[in-house]
Design goal:
This protein is mainly α. It has helices at residues 3-22, 24-40, 48-70, 86-121, 136-139, 141-166, 178-187, 194-215, and strands at residues 172-173, 220-221. Strands 1-2 form a two-stranded parallel ribbon. Helix 2 runs antiparallel to helix 3, helix 3 packs parallel to helix 6 (141-166) and helix 7 (178-187) runs antiparallel to helix 8 (194-215). The longest helix is centred in the middle third of the chain and has 36 residues, at 86-121. The chain is flat, with a radius of gyration of 22 Å.
Length: 222
């Protein structure tokens, strides 16, 4: 397995967990709608829905972290980064990953496992509401999220090393983006002629490319 295939495999793992966690939005929406209906229509609020909603959202938030990193979608606060050459970007990223990312995420995974194990042993339940639901299964998402981030972080470090050697960022595993939605909507529109459709798609692609260049290292390829 060459380096590029290994990187895409790790990207695929992070993407799978991120997309699987995205389905929790449906459950979260259903719980919120049910609670609104019961509270304001039936005047029968359910206490455990508050805890369940927090756990669903927390799980989604944690498991999507590695997916966001795989798509290089985390916000960058350094406005100078986009003006750097790829090798300079890679060197800066490599230093930050080793100095801050790896120690912090490793501590999260280690402490999270201990935190979740204790919760399981004592059969911990939520104390936010009376007779709250069990929370140990939710706390096990902490070490899982940490492990996924460490795995994706290893891939990002590999990308930095490859870029330092070649001067070019390795490709990333592509996922559906906003431009794909724009293209699909325009393709099925009966009110847009072909020339206008091409111009709109090209304009959207330019916007997306400009945004990518401002903060992302590496082209997104299938």
């Amino acid at each position: 397995m060459n380096a590029q295939r290994l990187l895409h495999t790790i990207d695929g793992i992070s993407t799978w967990f991120g997309k699987a966690a995205a389905w929790l939005i449906i459950g979260l929406m259903a719980l919120v709608c049910a609670e609104v209906f019961k509270r304001y229509i039936l005047n029968m609020p359910t206490a455990w829905i508050f805890d369940a909603s927090n756990m669903l959202y927390g799980t989604l938030f944690m498991l999507a972290g590695a997916y966001t990193l795989a798509q290089n979608g985390h916000v960058r606060g350094d406005f100078l980064y986009s003006s750097m050459r790829p090798r300079t970007q890679a060197l800066l990223d490599l230093v930050l990953y080793i100095a801050f990312f790896l120690p912090g995420i490793a501590a999260l995974a280690y402490a999270g496992w201990d935190y979740a194990s204790i919760s399981y042993r004592i059969n911990e339940h939520s104390n936010v509401t009376a007779d709250g639901p069990p929370v140990y299964h939710f706390k096990f998402m902490i070490p899982l999220a940490g492990a996924l981030l460490l795995l994706q972080g290893a891939a990002e470090i590999m990308r930095c090393v490859i870029c330092l050697k070649t001067g070019v960022w390795p490709s990333r595993l592509k996922d559906v983006s906003e431009i794909d939605v724009v293209e699909e909507q325009l393709a099925h529109s009966e009110y847009v002629d072909e020339e206008s459709r091409r111009e709109a798609i090209a304009h959207a692609q330019n916007i997306e490319e400009s945004a990518r260049q401002r903060g992302m290292g590496g082209d997104l390829q299938r």
